[in-house]
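Structure tokens please, single chain.
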Amino acid sequence: MSIATVNPANGETLKTYEAMDEEEIERRLQLAEATFRTYRTTSFAERARLLNRAADLLDEDQAEIARVMTTEMGKPIAQARAEAAKCAKAMRWYAEHAEELLADEEPAESDVKDSGASRALVRYRPLGPVLAVMPWNFPLWQVVRFAAPALMAGNVGLLKHASNVPQTALYLEDLFHRAGFTEGCFQTLLIGSGAVDDVLRDERVRAATLTGSEPAGRAVAATAGEMIKKTVLELGGSDPFVVMPSADVDRAAEVAVTARVQNNGQSCIAAKRFIVHTDVYDAFAERFVAGMRVLEVGDPMREETEVGPLASERGRADLEELVDDARRGGASVLCGGERPDGPGWYYPPTVLADVTREMRVHREEAFGPVATLYRAADLDEAVLIANDSPFGLSSNVWTRDENEIDRFVRDLEAGGVYVNGMTASHPALPFGGVKRSGYGRELSGHGIREFCNITTVWHGA
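Here you go.
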């Protein structure tokens, strides 16, 4: 795949870039290693000053970088601005909280004495250069939620971004440089996916984080395992959205539409499988389908647009194949399901019912505005359907029954359970999944500690 900006609204190639050669990659690896030796000794106050400055610059650049993101991957312009604002918020959150999150920890006095020490503590120290392999769907947020904690911990970053968002990737390097970070603190590597393995094998790279597809995660994890390097993986998701009889069905259906089509449906944490108790199934389905039908689909640069094009022609073809397979297997298409005429990689909001386990859409992630509806006889069947997936990123549960909430929190196989609301990431809350959705956590104190050397310090009596 070439490194290029291709506008998904019309298929026009706007900018192309040459991949960095081995000499330039080597220069940047040397710079990252050299910069880390000094940057690791900077104070939390200095790191916070720089990161707050980056947040201020991002706020100033919000309109410009939003247009870049929309041009590169097609998200509606209002959502692009919101993404930029969210990134600035996360930067400020880590600037404020990193020092307390990484403060020295002292064991109980009795345990210190029992260890034979006069004093003992746990200290969090940075690891070194961290390679971040990032996707195109949230081209700013996915990077910042790694970069903000990594930089505040004293690490330096090397970004291998998706090849279809090179302008966003270069903007991020420039942003941190303009904020005052030393040049080697955060660098973008304009390289293809085939060059990632060699970079990850380099001894100067101490760890890696990847958000992306399951095959990409497997490849990075395999190499990192061979080289004994720490990794955090956030992979696919096929999140359940469960609605029980006590729920506010009108509100659940309204939120369900947003939960499915956010970012044109191209979100790992988007609700994709809607599992509804039989007592409220018809009422929910009617409202949900009606809401999907009236969404404004079109030019992502228009303020009124709610669903823009998919990011790539291949992505639309993959989505069509899932829908066509389900249709051939007997699924009912309640709305959408047909590619529109005209330029751009658009696909309409689509709802499938009567989905069976034999259909690909039941097992695979639908990365676009396609929802599947399931009918559950009771709570036990709802849990069974929800867990019948290779993924376990997050989940959404709608019920007013406290006993049901306890059961869902206990039994759902997911990294998050959102009750009477849709899944969303926040800097203060850990984010990540189980099963084939990956391992490790981003955000919160858990995320900043992922790439730290957790050091025991013991003083003899």
